Amino acid sequence: MRKNVVKDKSFEFALLVVQTYKLLANEQKEFVLSKQFLRSGTAIGALIREAEQAESKADFIHKLAISLKEANETDYWIELIYQSDYLDESWYQTLSLKVNELIKLLIAIIKSGKKPNGE
């Protein structure tokens, strides 16, 4: 069985997002920014899963493009939450590294998917 790296990494990231949300909500008592972060951070993997069942190549690319938008939004929330002093630098670096890895993977898959066959 072929391993799906972006699917696995997005699920691992979603687990980290949930863990971070719990920390922000329970310990920091921050509910507004963290809820936005939770929504966009977990949507990345959900959209990748949707893309697996795409009806066409165009639908596949479209769903991954939406996932990429969610990843970019998540990167924004990570930066905002960090700059608002809710996360320490180590936690911020981990989240930032992982979301940017997903962004790079999604960009590569989308670019590859847009190429005509044979290139």
Radius of gyration: 15 Å
Beta content: under 5%
Mean pLDDT: 95
**Helix-residue proportion:** over 70%
Alpha carbon gap, first and last residue: 25 Å
Residue stretches low in confidence (pLDDT < 50, at least 5 long) are none
Described by the principal axes of the CA atoms, the overall outline is elongated
Summarize the helix and strand pattern as letters: HHHH
Sheet of most strands: none
List keywords for this structure.
119 residues; mainly alpha
Structure description:
This protein is mainly alpha-helical and 119 residues long. It is 81% helix and 0% strand. The protein contains four helices and no strands. The protein has helices spanning 5-26, 32-52, 57-83, 89-114. Helix 2 (32-52) packs antiparallel against helix 3 (57-83) and helix 3 (57-83) runs antiparallel to helix 4 (89-114). The longest helix is centred in the middle third of the chain and has 27 residues, at 57-83. The radius of gyration is 15 Å and the shape is elongated. The chain starts with a helix and ends in a 5-residue tail after the last helix. The relative contact order is 0.15. The model has no long low-confidence stretch (mean pLDDT 95).
